[in-house]
Design the sequence.
């Protein structure tokens, strides 16, 4: 049996080890995206709708942070959470929580930058009508976020894609501990280095399938929503 | 809650407005009073749209002063404007109206009743669930008019309301505008379409290059214009 057939068997028989790894991967990445959305969407909207000295610099930095190297983020979060670090007393290094923190740090700039661009574009469309209708600041922000929701789904997807695919940050702060902090990407790296290609290939297939399914669902939801909203 | 006092008359006193160093409105004196419609006419770039925006309170003059019912800082809750290219919010036609009603502070219990009334007024009854951005140009213009009227304004500004409409859609819109004017709303409209200005009637304010060149009753203006520029504009000549 070659690696591909073995991998397929693992997937089709719902191998418990493989399922546990997939479950943890999804939990960590979805939680990281949720945290990043809670921070990134309001932050991006705030930058889009306010004018202050140095705003252009903030936007440039934010856009640049979309390309943060995962290993650098992993190292920074490691230093923060290590026993002698400023957040060492939390005691979450080498736990899934540390992995969520690291991925949230990676994903937040992506969601914030894409939100900023989306909201700013919509704001330039709506600005004059809002002024004419004397729409207050809170209603403006809520309306812009609501009307941009289908575009914001794309931002969340970009964030999820980044989180699900990265390995550098979570292997540093999670430690790739079997049955505890081992995710699809860290397992693929480890099993490949060990020569256990069936599990690595199986995980790769699952990872790709999940990414395609999530994107397909989001695409369908976006298309249906756009049809209803007429955007 | 509506302000008890009227925003009329709207008075421009020596109003000058510039954009990036270019004079858009040049020492304008004007007074808009309750009653028959006022129609701003003039070629493109005459300053008609800017004057409407200033009268709405959306842009502040660089020099001079604008007063609404004698007040300099009157909030715009008694005024509404329909832009030349209105932007529909990403929701249904009825959703756009509900948004305007909510923004105007109109009680939620009245929303559905008002939505039905407004859609009927502009001839869009039965289309409330249609996504606003997927409506035709004429339907969007009429919806924009309904959205402006959702504010229950005392004064309605219309900036080139039929600029991109075909004759049938233009007629439907003008019929609604006349109906609104008859209901007691003071209509102030800009257009470069002389035929439309004649049909709407009222007081004509002829502008060119940021200045008010001539004003007068529509019948008198079109039959006996007093200035050479107005005569040439009516004759279809290019003004420099």
Sequence:
């Amino acid at each position: 049996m070659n690696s591909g057939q073995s991998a397929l068997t693992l997937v089709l028989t719902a191998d418990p080890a493989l399922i546990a790894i997939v479950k943890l991967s999804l939990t960590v990445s979805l939680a990281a995206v949720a945290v990043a959305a809670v921070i990134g969407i309001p932050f991006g909207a705030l930058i889009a709708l306010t004018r202050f000295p140095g705003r252009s610099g903030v936007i440039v930095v934010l856009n640049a942070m979309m390309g943060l190297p995962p290993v650098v983020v992993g190292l920074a979060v490691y230093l923060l959470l290590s026993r002698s670090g400023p957040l060492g007393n939390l005691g979450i290094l080498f736990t899934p929580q540390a992995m969520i923190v690291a991925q949230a740090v990676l994903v937040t700039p992506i969601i914030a930058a894409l939100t900023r661009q989306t909201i700013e574009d919509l704001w330039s469309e709506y600005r004059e009508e809002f002024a004419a209708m004397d729409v207050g600041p809170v209603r403006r922000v809520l309306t812009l976020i609501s009307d941009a929701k289908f575009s914001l789904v794309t931002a969340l997807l970009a964030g999820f894609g980044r989180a699900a695919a990265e390995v550098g940050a979570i292997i540093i702060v999670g430690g790739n501990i079997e049955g505890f902090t081992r995710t699809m990407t860290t397992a693929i790296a480890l099993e490949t280095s060990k020569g256990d290609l069936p599990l690595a290939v199986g995980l790769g297939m699952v990872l790709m399938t999940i990414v395609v399914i999530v994107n397909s669902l989001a695409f369908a939801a976006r298309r249906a929503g756009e049809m209803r909203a007429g955007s | 809650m509506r302000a008890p006092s009227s925003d009329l008359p709207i008075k421009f006193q020596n109003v000058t407005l510039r954009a990036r160093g270019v004079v858009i409105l040049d020492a304008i004196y004007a007074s808009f009073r309750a009653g028959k419609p006022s129609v701003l006419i003039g070629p493109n770039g005459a300053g008609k749209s800017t004057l409407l925006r200033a009268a709405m309170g959306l842009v502040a003059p660089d020099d001079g002063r604008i007063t609404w019912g004698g007040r300099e800082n009157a909030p715009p809750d008694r005024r509404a404007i329909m832009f030349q290219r209105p932007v529909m919010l990403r929701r249904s036609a009825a959703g756009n109206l509900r948004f305007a009603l909510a923004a105007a502070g109109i009680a939620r219990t009245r929303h559905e009743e008002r939505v039905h009334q407004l859609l009927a007024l502009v001839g869009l009854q039965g289309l409330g669930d249609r996504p606003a951005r997927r409506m035709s140009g004429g339907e969007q213009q009429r919806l924009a008019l309904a959205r402006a009227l959702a504010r229950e304004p005392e004064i309605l500004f219309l900036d080139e309301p039929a600029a991109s409409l075909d004759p049938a859609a233009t007629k439907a819109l003008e019929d609604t505008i006349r109906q609104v004017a008859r209901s007691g709303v003071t209509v102030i409209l800009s257009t470069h379409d002389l035929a439309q200005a004649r049909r709407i009637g009222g007081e004509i304010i002829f502008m060119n290059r940021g200045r008010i060149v001539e004003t007068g009753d529509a019948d008198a203006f079109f039959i006996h214009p007093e200035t050479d520029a107005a005569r040439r504009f009516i004759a279809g000549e290019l003004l420099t």
About this structure: The first helix of chain A runs from residue 3 to 12. Chain A has one domain: 3-229. The radius of gyration of chain A is 20 Å.
